[in-house]
Every structure is written in structure tokens, then in C-alpha cells.
Specification:
Length: 373
Amino acid sequence: MTIARLSGRPAPCLDKLNMNGRNAASAILNPLTLSPSKGVRKIALQRVTSFVLAFIAFAVTTVPVHAAEKLERLRAAYPAVAPGSTPSWVTAEKKIWQKYGLEVEPILVSGGARAVPALIGQSVQFIFGSDTGVTTAQLQGIPLVRLGVTMNTLGSSLLTQPSIQSVQDLKGKILGISRGRDASYIRLAKLLRDNGLNPNEDVKFLSIGGGEGGRLSALKAGVIHGTMLFPPLDLIGRNEGLKVLQKFDVPTPGGGINTTAALLKQNRPLVVNFLKGYIEGIHYMNRNKDDSLKILQRYFQNSDAAAMSYLYDETTRRLEKDLRAHPESIRFHLEMAALDDPRATKFSEKDFWDSSVVEEIRRSGFIDQLYKN
């Protein structure tokens, strides 16, 4: 058996133990056959016992907690390469979920129109985001559950062609949105209404694939006249000559953590461990900017240090360390959903949410202990 090294020094070997300057290997193997006194034999036995106990303790403390367990494999969808998805990437890349017995694979499923059916069909077990799509499904009676949020505010910008001077100039123009009525659509529709335009009559919405990057490319190519973008693409677009017509920062859920009612009922401990891992991932992201930036650069496929630093700063200042949703953000979200589905007006911030798991984790002291370290 190969004995591991500790602190750079070889672990003790049986044939190297000495007793009073003499080789004691034979005394260790069969001390009673030797002529030395009982005291010497007792010393030899004590040394054997100490060595064995020390080796066992070393082996136990160096084996990872999950090594003896089979990791539970899960998939978690995210609808866009956007700020609300970032902590899930960091949590997965740093293998934090493995500490809780889980192997979680974040999967890009562009747009709520695709991500929500993937959750309903059990192709994925969780969704980060697609908050509008999840609300729509819940209003239709589909048993989905909101567990918490990544953020309670979202910052975004309306970018347009340079010739657009005001929101009113967008009348009769083409605006880009993602597939499905997601957060970017909700913000854009509200902005139009606040400026006297009817989103159903005064503009044309064009669904564009490829996430936010696809919409930015369409705007640069002149296919659309405006679109709502999150960091860092709003900064990148501005640097490439597009106009930031208006910034938008409202209380609304971002990166909502959603699953099915069935999974929560059938395997609550798994859900608890999933959220614990995610909470620790947020903690890691907050404390490790340089390491997190490397991960963000890979997912955004962008090496612009200034843009990635802007993204990190805009995101981390909004992260909810305990995943708790604020009532005002939920109310705003429901008000926006009601613009397309009046049934949303009948619900309060307590409907469709199961905050019991987040509260269980909080009351356990897990989060307080995490942030003490």
C-alpha cells in the first residue's frame, strides 16, 4: 500500500522505525519472540499503536466529504448569458455543489419560452431566471415553485440607433426582444407605456435568437432600432457607437430560483443542499473577484477587462446572500405580468412562492456561519 505524504514529508514506514538505536521492525511484527525485557516490548507495542492511530486519523481527515458518496447529477437551466446567471456558473466551476453531494450542470436554454417547458418536462430540475415565463406558467395552473431570487433589482439600458433622440421616436420602429416575454420585454413595455406609447400598437417587436449578443448584433446591423440590454453588453454597445437612450433600474426579481412542486415534495433535502451550495457560491463570488472574472470571461466569451469588471461590480452589489425575495420586487413583477395577463392582479407577493427552504437554511445559522469565515 502506498502511504501518502503529509506536509511534504514522507509518511513513516514500518521498516524505518527504530527502538533505542536498533532496528525494531521484527519487534513490531512479533515482539513476543524476542528476548528484550517486558518494558521494551511494551514500548514497541505502544509505538505500533500510535503509528496506526495516526495513520487512520490522517487518512480520514484527507478524504473529501463526498468521496464515499455518489454525487446526485442535476441540470439547472439559465435563459441568457446575463448577470442573474453568473453565480450559478461560479458555483459550478468551483465545484461548490459537490460539497453538498451534487453534480450540477448549468445549461443555456435560451429564453423563457424554452427554459420553462424544459423544467415542466423534467429535462432540467431547476431554472435560474425566466421569471416572466415561470409566472405565466403558474397563472395557467402549472405546478411550478419559486424558491428564492439571486437579486431583487435589475439594471438594464435601452440601446438604440444613434438617430433615435427620445423614446417617442421609437413609434413605428422595430424593437428586438428575446424568444418569449422575459425581463427585457417587461422593462421595454413599461418604458414605452411610461412615455405614452402603446407597446401593442405603436411598435413592432421582433424575436431574435442568440440571447443578448444576438440582439446587440441585430442592432448594430440595423435590423432593429432598439433593444434592452443588461451589463456588460450595454457598455459594450455604447463603446461601439450605439446610443444608451435610457437606463432602467427597478425592484424586480432577477435570477429567480425555480423548480417543480413535485421535486420539492419528493426530495426536499436535495433542494436544501442545492440552495446551500448556491448560497456558498454567491459568498465565493463576492469574496473572489479575480477568480470570478476568469469564469465570467469564459461564459461571456469576452476578454475585455473593463467590461467584465463593470459586469462584476454591477452584479455583486445586487446579490442576495440569503436568496430572500423582497415584497416590493415581487409586486412590481406581478404588475408587469398583469399588463399581458390580467389574472396576475389577483395574486399577492405570497402566491406561488415557497420560502420555507430559504427560511429553514437561514434559521439554521448556515448563512451567518458562512459569512463569519
